[in-house]
Specification:
With about 230 residues, the protein is of the alpha+beta class. It has helices at about 10-20, 85-100, 120-125, 150-160, 165-170, 190-200; strands spanning about 5-10, 35-40, 40-50, 70-80, 105-110, 130, 140-145, 145-150, 175, 180-185, 225.
Length: about 230
């Protein structure tokens, strides 16, 4: 029974190892709180909440929020053998933990159409959907020597994201155009909920059913090889 499971803070190194091994991205991310779904000291799920990386993300929700009042759900993973509906149960319990132990007012998360995600779990747990037009600048991943990297990782490793430089490092270098991500928010603060909703910078929209409108350009131009 799901009632036998506990939601507890967990060691960040252990959470990192589990995410890198099991999450579909196989990459770590921003982490302020690592929460685990436990049964008899075994980890059945990991939820990672971190402060949003982009400097303007918080203010793009509503100008009244401060950076310390918003967390992003950056990673979520559950064992395949976890019980039915465990994702919804787990996320709901993390909400309660955050309300009790932090002053966070709003959560934000994204569903990645590149992984064929539309945000079903967010819809099942009553997040508010804000569409996929909240990002104003087109983003890219970079494939260098067979490794697909985020721009921040490229800069850390190679010092630049300029195609003219990267193609000298790898003649087969590719720049991969990202699709527009679906954005969801969840308001934890009951006392601030009305004010936050009234001052949202982006409207609340019906939940998406597919990823048909996530392209910046036509679908045949999703990947470009830089020569």
């Amino acid at each position: 029974m799901m009632l036998d499971y506990e939601i507890l803070p967990m060691d960040k190194k252990l959470a990192r190892d589990i995410i890198i091994k099991n999450h579909y991205t196989h990459k770590w991310s921003s982490c302020r709180y690592a929460l685990g779904l436990f049964l008899d000291d075994r980890v059945y799920g990991v939820a990672i909440y971190g402060f949003p990386v982009g400097r303007q993300v918080v203010k793009s929700i509503t100008p009244s929020l401060e950076n310390t009042e918003v967390l992003e759900l950056t990673r979520l993973w559950l064992k395949d053998e976890a019980p039915k509906n465990s994702e919804s149960f787990f996320i709901g319990k993390t909400f309660k933990w955050l309300k009790k132990n932090t002053d966070i007012k709003v959560l934000i998360s994204y569903a990645d159409p590149m992984a064929d995600h539309v945000g079903i779990i967010y819809q099942a747990t009553n997040w508010l959907y804000q569409g996929n037009n909240t990002m104003l600048v087109k983003g890219y991943l970079h494939k260098i020597n067979g490794e697909v990297l985020h721009p921040r990782s490229v800069v850390a490793k190679y010092g630049t994201t300029k195609a003219t430089t990267l193609v000298n490092i790898d003649p087969n270098y590719e720049r991969i155009e990202l699709k527009k991500k679906h954005r969801y928010i969840y308001i934890l603060s009951k006392t601030d909920k009305r004010n936050i909703i009234e001052n949202l910078k982006h409207p609340i929209l019906p939940y998406p059913k597919n990823n048909d409108n996530c392209e910046w350009v036509n679908k045949n131009n999703l990947r470009r090889e830089i020569k």
